Amino acid sequence: KQWYQRRVAITAGDKDVRLTLLEEVILVGIKDKEGYTSFWNDNISSGLRGAMLIELALRGRITLDNTGMRKRSLLSRRVMIKSDAPCGDILLDEALRHVKETDPPETCQSWIELLSGETWNPFKLRYQIRNVRERIAKNLVEKGILTTEKQNFVVFDMTTHPLLDQSQKVGVIKKIQDTLLGRWINDPQRMDKRALALVYLAQASEVLEHAFSSLSDEDYDLAMKRVRELLDLDPDVEACKDGADEVLWAVVASFFK
Question: Rounded to two decimals, what is the model's pTM?
Answer without folding.
Answer: 0.89
